Amino acid sequence: MKFSIIIPTLNEAQNTQGCLMALQPLRSDCEIIVVDGGSTDNTPAVAEPLADQVISSAKGRARQMNAGARQATGEVLVFLHADTTLPDNAIPLMRQQIDQPAPWGRFDIRLSGDHFMLKVIARMMNWRSRLTGIATGDQVIFVTRDAFMAVGGYPDISLMEDIAICKALNKISPPLCLKAKVTSSGRRWLQFGLYKTILLMWSLRLRYFFGEDPQTLARLYSGGHLWKP
Length: 229
Hints:
- By secondary structure, the chain is α/β, with parallel strands linked by helices.
- The chain is built from ten helices and eight strands.
- An eight-stranded mixed beta sheet has the order 3-2-1-4-7-6-8-5.
- The longest helix has 17 residues.
- The radius of gyration is 17 Å and the shape is globular.
């Protein structure tokens, strides 16, 4: 079973380099595809020697991940953010469990950083995901190509694409919730303030549930705003 790791990037040269360096031992089992959304730094140049493919796409995680999926040759697609690292045994775990019985899943998460609330936030994310069957992109969603194609890939929306595809995949089966932890950066939580960001994330999810335009939500998310700036 071949895996394709798809990494959307935008002006993240340092994170991309660290992410790809960590993936080098996996290249015998995986192909690595970096999909750049128009970086103005040297992200593509950094990625070139460390990935199997570096391709360009219109900006937007959903569009970039779909573009990567179209180029991928693996039977399993793994969608990885540039500021997130996989556990050492990620590939064997996915290989052992995917399609038995579910064709998709995600990992538990830990957030890097010293603040004690980052551990609480990560634990809440893992519990919520198990309860709802909905994963965030930071938890590294993986899915068989067949299941990904069956739901039409990621919907072309500016934010909440991870929630949308999880809802679609849940119609096929609940996710595999692997206890092994990916490590994702806690920088955003610290940058905008832990408690403000918690409130922002819940607010965005609630507004999405009630039909708010994802483009509006994306503007709020990128600026860390609770209300329209």
